[in-house]
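Q: C-alpha cells for this one, please.
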Amino acid sequence: MTGIVSYGTYIPYLRLKVADIANFWNKNAREIEKNLGIFQKSVASADEDSVTMAAEAAIQAIERANILPTQLEAIIVGSESHPYSVKPSSTIVGDILGVGNNYQALDTEFACKAATAALELVAGITKTKNIYGLVIGSDTAQSRPGDPLEYTAASGAAAFILNSQNAIARVYAFTSYSSNTPDFWRRDGQKYPSHGGRFTGEPAYFHHIESASLQLLEKLKAKPGDFAYAVFHMPNSKFPTQVAKKLGFTPKQIEPGFIIKDIGNPYSASSLMGLAKVLDIAKPNQKIFVCSYGSGAGSDAFAIETTPGITAYQKTIQNKVADQLDKIKYCDYAHYLKIVKSRNYHL
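A: Here is the predicted structure, written as C-alpha cells:
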C-alpha cells in the first residue's frame, strides 16, 4: 500500500463576506447564507494564482516531510484554473521548489476532482516504485460576477507527498465513478464557466458521490460506521451534509473536515483540504473516508488509515489548517472585483 508521508495547505488570508456580495447585487443576504450554509470565502490576492498557492502548499509539505526537493520524482498539479492554457503548472512549481530536472511532471483537469484523480495516479506510481510523489490541488475558482457561483467560488491549495515507506497514513483502497453529465462547463475562449443550476444536484453531485462511495464500501465489505471521519466534496454546506446522511455517515464524522463555512469551495483543493484538516487531529489507526466530485462528471472515493507515525508528525507541524482558517483580513466587493479583473489569463 502506498502512503501519505506529509501534506501542506495554503489558504489566502483575504476573505469576502457573502453578505457583501449579496448586498452589491441587491439580494437577500440572510436567505443566501441560509441556503448555502456559507458566510465568507477565501480570495487569492492580485499577486497570487493557482501556481503560487500550489508552491506554498508544497513547500510546507516538503518541510514537514524533512526531505529534499530533489528527492521528488513526480509532481502532478490538479486544477481548473491553470494560469496557462498551453504551458504546465507542474514544471513551474517544480522550478520554484528546486526539484531539478529528473522528475515526471503532469497537469490534470477534471473540475473539482482534478487533484484526487492525480492522487490515484501517484498512488499507483509509488506503489510500484519506491519514489516520492507530490500531488497538489490548487484553484482560484472562477465565477461570472452576479452568478450564484460567486458566493462560493474560493481559492486555496492542498499538497500531499506520497511514498511506500514512513507513512503517516495509508491509502489502502480507492475507486472511481464517471459519466458524461454536462452540469458545469466552459468552452475554449469563454471567460466564465456555465452551469445547469439545480441540475447540478441530484443527477450530478449526489449520483456520482453516492455511486463511488457505495462502490468502495462494497469493495471493502465495509460500512460507514467503520470510519472515524468522512470528507466529501463541499460545493456548499447542504450537499455534503445530505449525501453523508443518505450514505449513513453522521455529522460527527464529517464535521472535523468541514471547511466550506469558513472559506467556501476552493474546487480542486476542497476535499483534500478537508482531509488535511482531519489529519491534523486524527489518532493512530483511525480510518478516513474521502470522496471527491468533479463536474462533467465523476467522483473518486478513498479509504485511508492513519499509522502510529501520525502522532509524532502532528507534534512537529505548525500552521495547521485551523490556524490558516483563523488568519483573516476582510476585503470589500469592490476590491474583490479589482483582483478578479487583474487576472488577465481568465478575462
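A few notes: Residues 2-168+311-341 form a domain with the Peroxisomal Thiolase; Chain A, domain 1 fold (CATH 3.40.47.10). The longest strand covers residues 169-181.
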